[in-house]
Amino acid sequence: MAQHEGIFGGFSTGAHVSAAARLLEGQEKGSTLVFLVCDSGLKYVSTDLYL
């Protein structure tokens, strides 16, 4: 998301994106979904998770 959309989110944000994508593949296809980016990726930059 950071590379393509400029959204530097953490794991919670990634989970929201995944859930939204799954919803849009099903009954909600063609709808617009809104969710909050509830965390940033800053706390992951200094860990092995960033690599």
Question: How do the strands and helices of this protein lay out in sequence?
Answer:
Elements: H1 2-5, H2 11-25
How does this model look, in words?
With 51 residues, the protein is mostly helical. Helix content is 37%, strand content 0%. It has 2 helices and no strands. It is elongated and about 40 Å long. It starts with a helix and ends in a 26-residue tail after the last helix.
- Mean pLDDT score: 82
Distance between the termini: 15 Å
What value does the Rg take, in angstroms? 13 Å
Low-confidence stretches: none
Number of strands: 0
Structural class: mainly alpha
H-E string = HH
Strand residue content: under 5%
Quickly count the helices.
2
Q: Tell the overall outline.
A: elongated
Tell me about the largest β-sheet.
none
The helix content, as a percent range, equals 25-40%
Q: Main traits of this protein?
A:
51 residues, mainly alpha, 2 helices, 37% helix, 0% strand, elongated
Provide a brief overview of the structure.
The protein is an all-alpha fold and 51 residues long.
